[in-house]
Design brief:
Strand order of the largest sheet: 1-2-3-4-5
Shape: globular
Structural class: alpha/beta
Number of helices: 37
Radius of gyration: 31 Å
Number of strands: 15
Strand content: 5-15%
Distance between the termini: 43 Å
Helix content: 40-55%
Amino acid sequence: MKSIPAKAQGTQPNYELHSLGWKAFQQLCVAVASEVWGQTVQGFYDSHDGGRDGAFHGQWKVQSGETFNGSFTAQCKFSSQPTKALRLNDLKDEISKIERLAAHGLADNYFLFTNARLTGDFEEKLRNAILDIPGIKHFAAYGNDRISQFIHESARLRMLVPRIYGLGDLSQILDERAYAQSQEILSALGDDLSKFVLTSAYRKAAKAIIEHGFVLLLGEPMCGKSTIAAALALGALDEWGCSTVKIRDADEFVRHSNPHEKQQFFWVDDAFGATQLDVAATFKWNSAFPHLHAAIKRGARVIFTSRDYIYRNARSFIKESALPEMLESQVVIKVQELSRPEKDQILYNHIRLGNQSQEFKAKLKPHLPVVSAHAGFGPEIARRLGNRAFTKKLSIYESALEDFVARPMQLLIDVIGTLDISSRAAIALVFMRGGLLTSPVALTPDESGALDLLGGSQSEVRNALNALNGSLLIQVKSSGSLAWAFKHPTIRDAYATMVADDRELLDIYLTGTPVPRLLHEVSCGDVGYEGAKVIVPPERFTLVLGRIFAFKKQRSENRDQINRFLAYRCDAQFLQQYLAAEPNYLQSLNMWSYLDTISEIGVVCRLHTFSLLPEDDRKRHVTKICELAVDTPDSGILDKDVRALFNADEFEECLANVRSNLLLKLDDCIGTWRLNCGYDDDPEEYFSALEVTLKDFKKEFSVDEAVEKAIDSGLLHIQSIVEDLRSDRPSPRRKPDIMDSLEDTWEGSRSIFDDVDE
């Protein structure tokens, strides 16, 4: 008989509130109070709280119909002991604070929240003691069981504070259908959900998905986009009972969208391309946006994630007007912009809930504020510092910790280097599969040969994979199948560096590294490229060419990465071999607006430098560049490498054309730009490219008074237009929300790390 989750049977799960830490417990209580009271609660902090951890002034109407008015004060008492029972002696310092608050009219209604157990006898004694204080009209105490009940009864509270999902048994929190769907969502997170920190980015994302049904999460690689998306997806399963679907593209959305099912949740990772802009996928979303908008209107929720640089490129192709929600819900996540309290909480969670010994935590504790304040600190640093697999040789003193934070790659290389042969071989196999090794493991003949070269066996590798789970590797569920992946992409980077340094294993590196990464790490021939991990010798050029051409066939957009590789990382011999292998390549190179952003110009200049560019192709490009200089306008012609494409007469003729047909007729150019500025464009950002171009030309024509005067007048004209357009844009209005209660703006003298070693 199929088992029924505890939630369906009506039992209440036990939440391990003692694992939160004093500050996170205080934040949870403020959120609980906000839900219970239906008010935005002001949070206070440690020594500055005056006996209050949360407060508001207003009205609270309880379910019985009774109404309480006046000032409301909440105080939190946290214990790291899971079986702690609260006693009156634990509160003797609070009584005098309550008397002072009541005397000042700040505690008409006083509430105590604690994760300790409250017995019936103790609660009655405490109630009598508090209500005897003049000015206290109402008192309530909420212990571990009552707070757990609040959490259990409020799916919305769980969604707003997603770390709660990591404190209990999900099979007791979610119904059977939702629990089954949650497994694929959570597989990539491992135990990180229990360490989740409620950052400003998450609060904004949750607010957007609640108010608009859509959120676009942007950020650098591995800055937390997918973690936030997973937490929101889990909350949607719980809060709204949504049918959650993780989709890859617009075609899958159209296929899975059901007009007869209102509660659907769509999660689209890397919506506009994984590592670079996928123009074809972007155009497909344009056609799907009306369907997406209709789905949101009928109750669906949608999350897009994208790397910020990809989205910037994609905006040229996106019809945002077809999806108005995209203009309202954008959330940009940047790790370097985490607030100091958020960094502290991230570090605290990973140390307190990591697998380090109590002795290690105690020694580390005094140094933690310095670690979280370091410019190089991020979530992955915190995870490694909390995991003993990464700190076996770490000495706890200032300079060693400085190295740990500032030089994470080298320290990670050292950790991998100390592993046994089987563990290193396991990492190598995941590496060769591009970061995803299907489970159970079945090797190809080439992989078996590589395993022999590495000195491992299949049986030993299988054991090693399990041993590394949670530290360097993690088992994830993808499309219903299990696979081994790197716990963090920097582990792949570290192993790539190790293999690249071992000439005997060079072929493993060249065949196992994903091509986009390879194009950013190697140079073919010694071209003096600073930072290249591997200089590929001529006898390996054929191997690299084979991988590049296979990559190029996958998607036409891959050409940009290849072009940039050819432009900066290849010597003349490699370029000759490339041109011989692709005879039509030269004819495929064309010039476009903004030369400094397109990949073709770099290749053309490089080929010209090595005398590999035919004269007819050179003249064709020179003619087009001269046209773009006036029509766009584009000052890329002034770049020294681009200038080198011209002979002296050609360049002088081109500049004369720019002077007479652009710079002395700027009103026409600026007028055209003004007409093309959309209502949703940021005026200053929109005109910035034109301003930069004109300033570049001003430097070039610095001895021409007529041109200088025309450009200065044009720049003033642009500023006037920008100011006029800005005055037409409405200022956004901010709505009050429960999420405001969770803002972490508190300051105080008590360190969050006080109980990190308990």
